[in-house]
Amino acid sequence: MTRPTVDIFADLEAVSQAAADLYVDAAVKAVRNRGWFAVALSGGGTPQRTLELLAETPRRDRAPWAQTHVFWGDERCVPPGDPRSNVSMARAALLDRLSLPPRQIHPIDCAGAPAAGASRYEVDLRNFFGAGAPRFDLIFLGLGADGHTASLFPFSPALHETERWTAATTAPDGSTERVTLTPPIINRAALIAFLAAGGEKADALRLVVEGGADPDRFPAAAIRPLDGELRWLVDRGAARGLAVR
Q1: Which of 54, 71, 108, 126 would be a feasible disulfide site paired with 40, CB 3.0-4.6 Å?
Q2: Comparing C-alpha atoms, which of 3, 2, 59, 17 is closest to residue 235?
Q3: Rounded to two decimals, what is the model's pTM?
Q4: Out of 3.40.50.1360, 3.40.50.720, 3.30.470.20, 1.10.340.30, which CATH number does the structure's domain 5-227 have?
Q5: Facing residues of 169 across strands?
């Protein structure tokens, strides 16, 4: 595994601008190399501005949308249209502004039991990627103050999944049930980009980036690409605990 690259920016806006450029570059490269681009988006407040920027010129005009397939790294099992939904946020910020055909959008459907939703999402992934394990061109991830990423929470059994591509999880406070990609699938990506902003992330960021963090306690430490690239795009607040800044 190669060492992660950490890029520190002044604020969330600068992080978002850099993440949007990274997205476009990865998409153009993937389409040039194999004819299509598969991305898994993250949820929460941090990536929203990145998606908004992708819907605007000049990035909107540079990205190969006709060859793009959009997936998600995780989803909250809430009613359709709920503002907490990662899919709903991405639709409002980006996808509805692009009018992508439904066949290019692969949402996580949590209707019914979360475990059933996880199984349906795995079927969708297998139908798209084929028999072999998926290799996303780009996966965006966030970081919680507790060290969680996607919907992989501290001490979750999903952290030790070795065969399933997806898993059902529950937020530690019990507020929402979730569906998430599992670490082995995330780690197969060509490029994994963490976006982190805010001083409340500083302790977790330091432990995960500088090594030695227990993945059971800090799940983001379980993200170690097999043969891909790992990037951290963070603001000064999140980076304040790093030894080298």
Answers
A1: 71
A2: 17
A3: 0.96
A4: 3.40.50.1360
A5: 178
